[in-house]
């Protein structure tokens, strides 16, 4: 046990010593880092210094080698000079220099003589040129006199010829002769061209005759006649179709104009009867025509661009972007009624879904009156049916004031949550209750 305790104490001492040593090592490492940095910097400086010294030594060595070579070269040249002097060649050099000077003096004398001779030659050339010019002038004078004599001779011959011609215009005869010669040349050229063309046509004719004797062109006249008849028939049919097209197009345009006029009259009547405001007198539908023409005259497509305008006095403005939501709804209903009145006489079903949305009270009343009048006018029509879907029971009450509507249908849910349709009498409708209005809105909203 004592030994164990001693060992334990020894272990503790060793650990303590080890920790101290580790701290000392860490401290030494901290102190060693800047020394290492300094050592690296010193080594770098040393390497740079060694490299610069080596480079300087190389340069110095190269300069020494060059100086040695120059010294050796000078020594060789000095030895050669001494040998040259010993052999007496300097005297020969002096003799050569004296001969050179003599030759230069001789050359200058010859150059002076050459210049003198050149000047003399130029003087002689000028003299010769002047003599040649005089000789040429004399020859020209002789030739001129000979030509004058020849001209006088030709004039006498011309006068004699004019006397023989009996007063004819010689120049006119020459011009006529030249014109006839040109005409003859032109006719010859045309004849040659025509003969060449005739030969070519004969060759083509022979080729065509050979082709006609083949099986491909057997009975070609009958086939050509049949095709010609077919083409002419097709052209006549196309002409008739074009006439029919234009007649139909004019009829369609007249029908379109008539229907647009009828629609605008109905729209104006319904608007003036329904709308209670004073800012718009009436509304009308305008149609702008865009025509696109293809390659042929028949391939013309006409496109109609419709727009609704509001009229106040003599002024017109597009309704798009310039009217309220109520005016849009009222215009839409009126236009639908006018279209139904114009085009749906044999199919008299008119359905209006929430026609009173965005309308004020006055316009709601006028709309109810207009629908009542429409029902009275179309009552005798067997296939007329007006369907109005609405949450506004006030509007329904207004319809009930007229004697044209007797019943209405309400959609409600029973206790089990199933939707049921109830037929109610309009005459007993004194006004909706809060519960009925809530049921009606819920049931109608889920129809």
Keyword list:
three-stranded antiparallel β-sheet; two-stranded parallel sheet; 447 residues; alpha+beta
Quick structural overview:
By secondary structure, the protein is α+β, with helices and mostly antiparallel strands.
Which class do the helix and strand fractions yield? alpha+beta
Low-pLDDT residue spans: 293-298, 431-447
Count of individual beta strands: 7
Q: What is the rounded Rg?
A: 66 Å
Compute the number of helices.
8
Distance between the termini: 103 Å
Average pLDDT figure = 80
Shape, per Cα inertia axes: flat
* Strand percentage: 5-15%
Write up what this structure looks like.
The model is unreliable at about 295-300 and about 430-445 (pLDDT under 50). Strands 1-2-3 form a three-stranded antiparallel beta sheet, covered by helices on one side. It has a two-stranded parallel sheet with strand order 4-5. Helix 4 (about 220-275) packs across helix 5 (about 325-345) and helix 6 packs across helix 7. It has helices spanning about 1-85, 90-165, 170-210, 220-275, 325-345, 360-375, 395-400, 435-445, and strands spanning about 280-295, 300-310, 315-320, 350-355, 385-390, 405-415, 420-425. The chain is about 70% helix and about 10% strand. It has about 450 residues and is of the alpha+beta class. It has eight helices and seven strands, in the order ααααβββαβαβαββα.
